[in-house]
Design a protein that fits this description.
The complex is a heterodimer.
Chain A: H1 3-8, H2 11-14, H3 25-35, E1 36-37, H4 54-76, H5 79-102, H6 109-119, H7 127-141, H8 155-166, H9 168-172, H10 180-188, H11 191-194, H12 206-215, H13 225-232, H14 244-256, H15 262-282, H16 290-293, H17 299-306, H18 317-337, H19 344-366, H20 374-381
Chain B: E1 5-6, H1 10-16, E2 40-41, E3 47-51, E4 53-54, E5 57-58, E6 61-62, E7 69-70, E8 75-78, E9 83-85, E10 90-96, E11 105-110, H2 128-137, E12 145-146, E13 161-165, H3 176-182, H4 184-198, E14 204-208, H5 214-222, E15 229-233, H6 243-250, E16 261-264, H7 266-278, E17 284-290, E18 298-303, H8 308-312, E19 324-328, E20 335-337, E21 349-354, E22 360-361, H9 379-382, H10 406-410, H11 417-425, H12 429-434, H13 445-449, H14 456-472
Parallel strand pairs in B: 1-15, 2-18, 13-14, 13-16, 14-15, 17-21
Antiparallel strand pairs in B: 3-11, 4-5, 6-8, 7-10, 8-9, 10-11, 12-16, 17-18, 19-20, 19-21
The chains are: A mainly alpha, B alpha/beta.
Chain lengths: 382, 475
């Protein structure tokens, strides 16, 4: 039996002026779009189209993220699944409500936002904070601007920024050591996944350790066991930002598929390394050498997955380079001079604001002089 | 002096047009090249269907009526710059005048099988004006494209260069070399006639894919001592045969605008020889018919106005014509055609694509081994297998622009199609013009690669043509 024919029987409830469930059409469309690829024909030239579409584009990001996600799952426990479920459910609800309200289709971009958000939070973040954070991120980061494609800020980072500013203490005590979840599970059973146990051992993040060490004038030695841990990911931090090597590999894969822009990523890393190197030479009491700094915190994750968000980053190549360098440089400054150890969220959000300006400037500049017009040609022809 | 061979190829030209257009981007779509045999000449059809829209123009002034007997070379209809002559002798069956929304056509019951010698003796060489009149009567003039306009030039037009396009990156088009190889002596003589047709000293530039090659050598050998022909190499990359792109690419070396080029192709050059030497009306065009619905690609020499359905039907493989789409005039730039429609002046390729797909369950999970994408998000891209099976599917849902920049990457003119589209939909045409709207070469690459399936090129091309029209009307 043709499953689509069966599903399409419900169409009469959603389509048409007198359909009783007409406002819920975006939901109908989204479910249909999720399960079936309809053989919709092209109407205008070119009559043949490339196989890439927005679903595949977004799925490519999810596929690339899978290894990092699995690492997070092993290191910080199955609680990540629950966090993701909450993020998708609450964020999806906001997205759906808005789609119904605006009478537009539900956008696939949420597939990525909903997945990225729990991945950049501490492992023991209370579930209600995740719910509030993603709702805030989707609402104020995206929907108020008019939905995907019109937003200025990366919605996942808006949510992250909101929860970091609203409940700093909650987040600070949510950082746990990798594999600490096994101990907690033994002691508290399944409940340990839902509510973080009171006796959970929280510890300082690597960036805290680095910051303290640098300001006391004893920078951690390069290539010490600590630095190696930063690269392999066996350290604490936000769930999926720790596995530096995995992030680099999967991120390079994403660049190779052409879904994310290598220019932006390279610019973030170069910007971070260059500015970090200079400042750590000039002011070693504040700035750590970037070789260590780049492995800690979210800079790599941001470079490969956050800065490359197509909607909030510039389109022009030169714009991408300046945008990326700006993120790298601002991160160094925020980390070295700021009151809190991590600054990459704010760096990306600030550069998001600049992206439209950069685009405007470089797009206008890229345009060649006007082609000779008829009157010019007539003169030339004599 | 041997032929001035511009060995630096386009590099030298590029300097001449720095800052105007570059041949970057474009669709790097590769697919199995069809192998064509020598083109077969197709016999006459019982009826011919001549469209009253040729060369992007509407032929509104009709010169014949139903029931009238016509001869080869009778003027049937004319538009502003295009005239349509009868390619055979027969009787007019139907005349449907062209309306803005419904294209018109003239149907002819073809009687005569021969199109030879319509004018008593070749009228050639007396004066440039007479030469041009003669060439127009022979049905050749209206296939010459004038650089930027891509319409036939006026009879008193003086070009600065004539470009003979022998390189076609359009998928499935018969390579110029096949046509030239079949009629090499005629081609060489045709170049001389073309030179005379232009009147004053006008260099002829031939585009070739490579410097060497047996055919290239043979052409050079034959052209020895004729300094008016230049051979230049261009990359075989879509859309290199695009008149607008090529005109800008080859550039305005003498400081003249790129509008002063004439564009022709090898078959026109050969037709010129046939017309001048044998008085033969140019009634047959080379057209390739190919696509997934056919067993093998076919190169034909078919009469103008031959109904496409008649041409395609004998070639179909296990599928009926009503389940196929006919794409006339190229894969990317072409339009859908109904089987009754006849072959037009500009048709070089007809794709026959089956339309038999049904809804696909969980299509986004499909690895995409048999799909083609210029991103590497489908498996065929991951494993490096280049497959390209054209389908008339949109392949996704339309969504708002996410600014991925694929359209910018694809644009051979270096524009930002997504930005142009945004401005045009907000009716900010002046801003769009500032962003280079007029530089669009109408190759449709941007829409092809769009992730959000936005009809970028449709909007942009429409806005561009409206702007040019308004300018021509002095608005």
């Amino acid at each position: 039996m043709n499953l689509h024919t069966w599903y399409a029987r419900a169409e009469k409830w959603f389509v048409g002026d007198k359909a009783p469930l007409r406002p819920l059409y975006p939901l109908y469309e989204a479910i249909e779009g999720f399960f079936f690829v309809l053989p919709k024909r092209t109407e205008h030239a070119p009559l043949v189209r490339d196989a890439v579409d927005i679903k595949r584009y977004m799925i490519a990001v999810v596929v690339a993220l899978a290894p990092v996600y699995l690492f997070g799952l092993v290191a910080f426990g199955p609680r990540l699944l629950l966090m993701t479920a909450v993020s998708y459910a609450v964020g999806g609800l906001v997205e759906t409500l808005f789609a119904i309200f605006r009478k537009e289709e539900i956008n696939e971009g949420f597939l990525v936002t909903g997945l990225l958000f729990p991945m950049i939070l501490p492992p023991n973040t209370p579930l209600w904070i995740i719910a509030v954070g993603i709702a805030f991120g989707v609402f104020f980061g995206k929907e108020v601007f008019g939905g995907t494609g019109h937003n200025i800020f990366n919605p996942a980072l808006v949510g992250r920024c909101f929860v970091a500013l609203s409940w700093p203490a909650h987040l600070a005590r949510s950082y746990v050591e990798p594999l600490g979840w096994i101990e907690a599970f033994r002691n508290n059973g399944l409940m340990s996944f839902i509510v973080a146990p009171a006796d959970a051992v929280t510890s300082a993040t690597p960036l805290n350790i680095i910051n303290t060490a640098v300001r006391q004038g004893r920078p951690p030695e390069f290539l010490s066991a600590f630095t190696l841990k930063l690269y392999t990911g066996w350290t604490n931090g936000s769930i999926c930002e720790t596995a530096s090597i995995l992030i680099i590999l999967t991120g390079l894969f994403l660049c190779w598929t052409k879904v994310s822009s290598w220019r932006t990523t390279a610019a973030v890393i170069v910007g971070y390394l260059a500015v970090g190197f200079v400042l750590s030479m000039v002011w070693p009491m504040r700035f750590v050498t970037p070789i260590i700094g780049i492995g800690a915190g979210g800079i790599l994750f941001a470079a490969f997955y956050m800065a490359t968000d197509p909607v909030t980053s510039p389109v022009s190549n030169k714009g991408k380079i300046i945008y990326g360098c700006g993120i790298g440089a601002l991160t160094v400054l925020f980390r070295g001079l700021g009151a809190i150890p991590e600054g990459v969220t704010y760096a990306v959000l600030m550069m998001n604001m600049v992206a439209p300006l950069l685009d405007r400037h470089f797009i206008l500049r890229s345009v060649p002089a006007k082609l000779p017009r008829k009157e010019v040609v007539r003169e030339g022809n004599g | 002096m041997p032929i001035a061979q511009r060995s630096q190829g386009i590099a030298a030209y590029r300097q001449g047009v720095a800052g105007q257009l570059k041949l970057s981007g474009g669709l790097a779509v590769q697919f199995a090249k069809p192998t064509f045999g020598a083109p077969e000449t197709c016999g006459w059809m019982r009826t011919l269907n001549l469209s009253l829209r040729q060369n992007r123009q509407r032929l509104t002034r009709l010169h014949v009526q139903t029931g009238q007997a016509v001869q080869t070379g009778t003027l049937l209809a004319e538009g502003e710059q295009t005239q349509l002559y009868c390619p055979c002798s027969g009787t007019i069956q139907t005349v449907v005048p062209d309306k803005r929304k419904a294209p018109g056509y003239i149907e002819i019951a073809a009687a005569a099988q021969s199109s030879d010698k319509i004018l008593p003796s070749p009228q050639w060489g007396k004066s440039t004006e007479q030469n041009r009149q003669f060439v127009r009567r022979m049905g050749i003039w209206d296939s010459i494209q004038q650089g930027m306009q891509m319409t036939p030039p006026a009879l008193d037009d003086m070009p600065s260069e004539i470009i003979v396009r022998c390189v076609f990156a359009e998928p499935g088009q018969i390579p110029g070399s096949i046509i030239i190889r079949k009629h090499l002596p005629e081609f060489i003589r045709g170049l001389k006639y073309l030179y005379e047709l232009a009147g004053s000293y006008t260099p002829i530039v031939m585009t070739m894919p490579t410097e060497g090659g047996a055919l290239g050598q043979a052409i050079r050998e034959q052209l020895r001592g004729q300094a008016f022909v230049h051979i230049t190499t261009v990359p075989i990359r879509y859309p290199v045969e695009n008149g607008l792109l090529l005109a800008n690419l080859l550039g305005s070396q003498r400081g003249l605008g790129p509008e002063h080029f004439w564009m022709t192709d090898p078959q026109l050059v050969i037709a010129l020889t046939e017309a001048i030497e044998k008085g033969r009306f140019w009634s047959h065009r080379y057209v390739s018919i190919l696509g997934p619905a056919l067993q093998k690609p076919v190169a034909l020499c078919a009469p103008l106005g031959a109904p496409l359905g008649e041409l395609v039907r004998p070639l179909l493989h296990n599928i009926s014509l009503d389940r196929c789409a006919l794409l006339r005039g190229g894969l990317y730039t072409g339009k859908r055609a109904v089987p009754q429609e006849g072959l037009r002046l500009g048709d070089a390729v007809v794709w026959v694509v089956p339309e038999t797909e049904t809804p696909e369950l969980l299509g986004w999970l499909h690895p995409g081994t048999e799909r083609h994408s210029w991103t590497r998000t489908v498996l065929s891209g991951l494993v490096g297998k280049k497959v390209f099976t054209p389908r008339t599917l949109l392949r996704g849902s339309q969504r708002p622009c996410i600014g991925c920049g694929f359209c910018r990457e694809a644009c051979p003119a270096g524009l930002y199609p997504h930005q142009l589209h945004r401005l045009i939909t907000h009716e900010l045409t002046e801003e769009a013009e500032q962003l280079g709207l007029l530089n669009c070469v109408e190759c449709h690459s941007c829409s092809y690669g769009c992730v959000s399936k936005i009809e970028l090129s449709h909007t942009i091309v429409h806005a561009r043509r409206t702007l040019l029209q308004n300018e021509a009307n002095g608005i």
